Amino acid sequence: MGENKPKKKNKALFRFFQIALVGTIMAFIVIIVLTFVGSDNDNALDLDNVRLIQFETPADDAPVAVFETTQGTFYAVLYPDEAPEMVEYFTGLVEDGYYNGTYVYGVEENVYFIGGSKTKDGSDNDDTNTDSLEPEKTANLWPFKGALCSYGVEKGILNTRTMSGSRILFVNTVEFTDDFIEELKAVDGNEDVIHAFIEHGGIPNFAQQYTVFGQVIGGMKAYETICNAKVTDSDSKNPKEDIQFTKVYLTEYGSVKAQISADSGADTQATAD
């Protein structure tokens, strides 16, 4: 999978995300209006033909990653047609057992968490896969609540981009205040995308900044438990109690849809009680 690099700390990791979450509205406006709409931009996405596949029921043969964790199990459908290189890379790691025993090493409470690290604090060790892939962007995948985004290093000076890597950023949501919603509605972008963020939640200013390659489709109780984990301090964002992916494996949606439905019903009943 690539040559391992010496151990190093990711000291600036959460400072970056804390800064990134400030000014969410303006960042989203810049992304939608300047980056993707211009017809003269070689990297522009066609926002006139957006298909919000993250809210569609998967086909029975759609690939699904099952995350068994110390906080419960959740399920994520993968999108090989939209992010083929990242899905191939991720599934290869899963099949090698790479993620078994890895850690969730950072939590921005109720906003996102990052997992897939061989160490508790997110630093590299001799077992860390440090392969780096070019980001894949598509108008059909967005950082809505439940999205799986590949998190890697930043590269480039003029063309700065976040590469894809073995760690995964799991999206929950920022707070959608009334003012935030009104400003989003005023954006000259794709109305379906904007409405989906408002209805379902997510992190708008992560849009097209990371490779989105999956979507959580079941086990939201476990997923949200991790999103709300308490941390040791506001700088490192390391969970107070260890959170691990005890086992990650691949299956197809048809093989787990009954279990997902049963889990969803049990979660709904528990909430009602």
Q: Can you tell me the overall shape?
A: globular
> Can you identify the CATH class?
Mainly Beta
For the biggest β-sheet, the strand order reads: 1-2-9-5-8-4-3-10
The CATH superfamily appears as Cyclophilin-like
Examine the coordinates and then state which fold CATH places here, giving the name of the CATH topology. Answer: Cyclophilin
Assign the structural class, choosing from mainly alpha, mainly beta, alpha/beta, alpha+beta, or little secondary structure. alpha+beta
N- to C-terminal distance: 48 Å
Helix content percent band: 25-40%
Mean pLDDT: 85
Report the C-alpha radius of gyration, rounded.
18 Å
How do the helices and strands follow one another from N- to C-terminus? HHEEHEEEEEEHHEHEH
By oligomeric state, this entry counts as single chain
Query: Would you report the number of β strands?
Result: 10
Number of domains: 1
Largest sheet: 8 strands, antiparallel, barrel
What would you say the CATH architecture is?
A: Beta Barrel
Helical stretch tally:
7
Low-confidence spans: 1-20, 32-40
Residue share in β-strands: 15-25%
Quick take:
The protein has seven helices and ten strands.
3D architecture notes:
- By secondary structure, the chain is an alpha+beta fold.
- It has a single domain, classed as Cyclophilin-like (Cyclophilin, Beta Barrel).
- The chain contains 7 helices and 10 strands.
- The strands form 2 sheets. Strands 1-2-9-5-8-4-3-10 form an 8-stranded antiparallel barrel. A two-stranded antiparallel sheet has the order 6-7.
- The radius of gyration is 18 Å and the shape is globular.
- Residues 1-20 and 32-40 have low confidence and may be disordered.
